[in-house]
Every structure is written in structure tokens, then in C-alpha cells.
Amino acid sequence: MTPSRFCPKCGESGKPLFKGFCVNCYMADHPNVLEIPDRIELEYCPECLRNFAHGEWASGHEDTIHELIRSKVRTELENHSVSIEPGREQGKVRFYTIVVTGTLGGEEVMLERKIGLRMIKKQCPVCARKDSTYYEALVQLRPKGKEIDLDRLKSAMNFLRNANRALIKNHREAEVFRYERVKNGVNIYFGSMKAAKKALQAFVKTYACETNESYTLVGLDKSTGKRRYKVTISVRI
Predict the structure, then answer these.
(1) pLDDT in tens, 84-109
(2) Vertex 112, ends 73 and 35: CA angle to 5°?
């Protein structure tokens, strides 16, 4: 942009113009220089506290909120940055102050808006499955002989828990949905067949145990048309 004698609207001279007007007059006539909705909504699961944004359930509550707000910012400012400050809460709505800074026509500009964020409770698919009878893999921990070594059984469960926790970081459905104590051992229900098998790989080497798998057809996957199975893995320790 090059300096001009005057702005045709206000007559101010000596300043660079943006699209033929001084920055102040352009912004006055074009409020869409910065567009942010007054209200936005964010779904969150009251059980795991994950938020649904950008098509997926993710942890990191405040980070997700800030990312969602930034995704709603539309601006003509060049090299802009966005700062977000939380404010008061009113009922189910929390208010935020959004400050966007950048340049327009070579001039530095700072614009401020206030928005309201409404949190909506919605159970995520994984927690919904955990509350149901759903599972993809059942691992049955059983003793090799007639006697049950409780210390060995507890050690085995802790090993599987730790192996499983490492998988959850990249695959939420790898969670163990529930444990069930039975007469001669423990049943462990996994949300993911793949995760159960992966957790057992290191387990089998450590405990030098035997496994046996059996599959049950449970239906068809509507999205792929492929058959869906549950697996029962018997582990003798």
C-alpha cells in the first residue's frame, strides 16, 4: 500500500489506504474484517471429560476450547494472532474475550470480541460402550493347575493394565471396559480386539503362558460390510 493524500470518506491525509480508504473508515464500513460467532457450542462427555471437536473426541479441555474458538475466527487482518481470556459464567454459558491483532493496510490493528461458549453433555461412543455389554475381546486369565496363585494372578492383571495404558494414548477404544472375578480366575473385557492381542504379546513372553483363541460372529459392520467378530482368548498362567 502507498500513502495517499486523503481518505475519500473522512478526508484524513498522510496515511496508507486499504482498498481506497483509511483503515478506520474501511473497518467502520466492513465489520466483517473480523467475524466470530457470538455463541458456540461444544459437546463433552461427563464421564471421561473428553470434548467433541473437529470430528473427534479428544482430551485436553481448555486446549480443545481454545482450538475450537480459533477455528471460528475469520479475519482480513494479515499476520494475525489470537489471544483468548476466559471470563464469567452465566448458567451453562461461559464467556470469553477474544483479542485479534494483525495488520491492515500496513497499520497495526487490535480488535476485541466477546463470545459465549455453551457446554453440552453427550456421552462419547467409548463410554457408551463401556456402560453396555459391548466388547471385542474377552481375555480369560486361568491357572494352569487346580490351585489359584492369587499373587501371580494380581501380577498378571497389573502387567496387562500397564501394557494396555500405553496403547490407549493412540487408540482410545483400547481401554479395558471391565473386569469380572470368576470362580477360577478373572475375565478382562477389552474394547478393541487389536489392543487385546497387542497387550498379550509381551505378556505371553513374560509369563511363558499358553493361549487359545475362539471367535464368535456378531454381525456386519455397516460402514464396511465386513463381518464382525468377538474373540475369547483363554490364557493359562
Answers:
(1) 999 888 888 999 999 999 999 888 99
(2) 30
Domain holding 205, by residue range, is 133-236
Phi, psi of 120 (to 5 degrees): -115, 125
DSSP annotation of 31: G
Q: Grid coordinates representing 81?
A: 494472532
Which of 121, 147, 171 is the endpoint of a domain?
121
Phi, psi of 152 (to 5 degrees): -65, -35
Bridge-partner residues for 227, per DSSP? 220
Neighbour count for residue 217 (Cβ, 10 Å): 9
Q: How far apart are CA 189 and CA 136, in angstroms?
A: 8
- Alpha carbon distance 1, 21 (integer Å): 11
Tell me: do 44 and 74 sit in the same domain.
yes
**Cβ proximity of 229 and 218 under 8 Å:** yes
**What pLDDT, in 10s, does the model give residues 181-230?**
888 889 998 888 888 888 888 888 888 888 899 999 888 877 777 888 88
Distance CA 78, CA 163 (A): 48
Q: Is residue 117 part of a domain?
A: yes
Cell, residue 63: 486446549
**Cell numbers at 231, concatenated:** 474373540
